[in-house]
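Model the whole thing, not chain by chain.
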Amino acid sequence: MEFTVKQIAGLLGGEIEGEENLKISQLSKIEEGISGSISFLSNPKYEPYLYTTEASAVIVDKSFEPKKAFKTTLIRVESSYTAFTQLLQQYERIIKGDKRGIEQPSYLGQGTELGENPYLGAFAYVGTNCKIGKNVKIYPHAYVGDNVKIGDGTVIHSGVRIYNNTIIGQNCTFFANAVIGSDGFGFAPLPDGTYKTIPQLGNVVIEDNVSIGAGATIDCATMGSTVIRQGVKLDNLVQVGHNVEIGKNTVIAAQAGIAGSTKIGENCVIGGQAGFNGHITVPKGTKVGGQAGVTRTWEEEGLSLNGTPALELKDSLRSAAIFRKLPLLEKRVHELEKQNKEDKH
Amino acid sequence: MEFTVKQIAGLLGGEIEGEENLKISQLSKIEEGISGSISFLSNPKYEPYLYTTEASAVIVDKSFEPKKAFKTTLIRVESSYTAFTQLLQQYERIIKGDKRGIEQPSYLGQGTELGENPYLGAFAYVGTNCKIGKNVKIYPHAYVGDNVKIGDGTVIHSGVRIYNNTIIGQNCTFFANAVIGSDGFGFAPLPDGTYKTIPQLGNVVIEDNVSIGAGATIDCATMGSTVIRQGVKLDNLVQVGHNVEIGKNTVIAAQAGIAGSTKIGENCVIGGQAGFNGHITVPKGTKVGGQAGVTRTWEEEGLSLNGTPALELKDSLRSAAIFRKLPLLEKRVHELEKQNKEDKH
Amino acid sequence: MEFTVKQIAGLLGGEIEGEENLKISQLSKIEEGISGSISFLSNPKYEPYLYTTEASAVIVDKSFEPKKAFKTTLIRVESSYTAFTQLLQQYERIIKGDKRGIEQPSYLGQGTELGENPYLGAFAYVGTNCKIGKNVKIYPHAYVGDNVKIGDGTVIHSGVRIYNNTIIGQNCTFFANAVIGSDGFGFAPLPDGTYKTIPQLGNVVIEDNVSIGAGATIDCATMGSTVIRQGVKLDNLVQVGHNVEIGKNTVIAAQAGIAGSTKIGENCVIGGQAGFNGHITVPKGTKVGGQAGVTRTWEEEGLSLNGTPALELKDSLRSAAIFRKLPLLEKRVHELEKQNKEDKH
């Protein structure tokens, strides 16, 4: 995984200004560039780093005019940002691997066929009557139950568990050990103090371009579907209860949890370890701080919420600021009481 | 998975009032009924929905007398609630599958025998000298270590990890990727700043009718046993530390965590993301709010606790209500100070 | 797994005072000793338990002089603490098993060789071009990607997922279902409200003597490495974001989460469910309470932090104490207002 500046310039259709035989083995940010790495300069804000960077080569726009001396080699291209992105993707393919084919032993249930150009890792298990799209990768030890649909280009990493009847769109990614479609937490109390299990008969529907983090868990619906709309990104260890719906392009950071039947709107941004009560609605564009506890439905779109129970951010910050000075406030009240008492005498 | 109203009425021993050839492919709540679904009416509170529901059929009590016109087909039975439950269970068996037999390749260690009527999924692993009861299901990729006992009717889903010497009762369910019996977090600090690992030599004992959520983790005891009593229900991603004991019929919502050696009483209800310090006791019937942090032992049974550090719910709510108005309280104090100052002049 | 007192005394080179033929089948703490168990007495604080313990035998220092009657059998050794630790380790080996050899079916990719004296469980998967040290144990269903290095004596439990290019030191332990090196949570918002995935091209580097809990997740770096220094202990379900660095000998309790690019210093002690914002620095020796939310960089070493947003412990406790009495404080302010009003008249 080592290339010369010349090889990279050739790949990008760029012109070299400097040493063409330098060896490049990694990518770097220009401000963190080290010898043997290639970086790029697009945003003028970062130009000063060009004159000090240790990166062996820097990709710049054709039009770039340096204002000082520098020691790195330049590769001039039409758009340095686009060229670097292209390089990133090539590099990613090398780093992450591009697995294809069917490793043995693996298990395919009756009535299940893989689409064109599959990867099925060793010890992967796909149940009966599944419909698997083209270019789907199913890594070793992944489990796919019965009657599951998986759209084209979706990637199921090692140890992911997908229960029966789950429906998954195109170009989704499930990171290792995520669990999709296990039973919702539904128990009805009985007079003797024990609980009766409420059958969980629904499924999970995941639309296109969704990313699910490592160890995240999404429960199936009691009836109907738990729904994750297109473009949603869930981080590691996020918990999604039964019958929840998450609106499109909402991103949820690690270890957040959403209790049953709650609806999260589109384009929300949810911080890590945040929690949501069940049966509430959070509208479009809501921002929720880390560790916040959202306990009720909010009507207005685009609010920032914070704290437990969650308040609007500005209220929460004001209260928190005084919380820090509570001992002082108490002292001030004590002082007033003393004065009042003295005044009486 | 499509039935006619006539077939379903036959199954339930009910009488049809309306179209007997309608096709039914799913179950629904009466207030969410859609064409092609069957619902039920038991609680009179829901009667108004009968007159508007889109459900193709509704199961009602024999004695039910409608007060308005409706367009759905009725199936009259002795008890509509019981009949619907029966239908739910049938449907569940179809949806969830009823796996039997031994798929290959799978692994059974020396001295281990499966009980009658087993399911052992492909790539499942059961170690040496295990005692596995009747009607136990062990799904693909489940791991069962050595010297493990599993009672009749227990179900171990895909990717569950059960360490050596664990003892599990009857009719328990372990959802995907739960981990039972990994080492407790025990490290003794040494003078040089490093830590020495304290051997974790105990096990986990799980009694009958316990349900453990996806990705939940239960540590083995340092010595003795971590104990989960009968009827306990743990939701996804719950963490149970070493030497913890959870009393019977206690339910714990997702992402809650219990530190080592803490005892939780019977019939407690614990909210999501709640946390418990180690070495404390929480008595019978305690209710703990979501995200609460229980930091000390409580003596009185049946309390509701909330907040961090947890207070009794009524105290916590009162304080939280004023917390929200802290800026106003500060202003009031400021106003008093101003008045006092003016009075002096 | 039953030994006589005589056998144990022989193993420890100790002298028996009492019954040498008693059967011992487990270890116990002296205050919890039951018949059939062996315990030890080292700290004089526990001496009273010697006179009441039900343990069949107790290991004591040679020099120990009892002050009362007792019914247990003594084994006298040079150092009772050392002898008991020795016994613990022997017992651990029996309890936990000492797996060796290669079970089938298992999978080894091209260019990968196992070091001397390996354990490779059935259904374990190791990708291409990995370097695996001596005495490494890889349990059933563990997944090791391509180009992974694992140092001597490291143990990978069942269901652990180690992504490509991870570098792991010696004598580390990964408990079941931990995930190392999955993609960091990096998405760039686009004008249409969707997100573009930022390629995550770095890896995870884990130094020697690290312990990673069950279900914990550690993301790979965007570029460069997420680094876990030597001696770090992470409990179950801990989340470590991309480009985080955790200093040596830091211990982090269950369900804590660290957002991307944050640096945690050496010898910190972090409580369960604590959360850390991204891009902050926490210095050496910091103690962080359970459920705390650390939102900013702290400069001073050795502080204790608590609450959300985290304050110094003493400030946090003072404010929390008044928080509990907020209704009273509000009443006192109200009283003052009333008095002022009356005074005006």
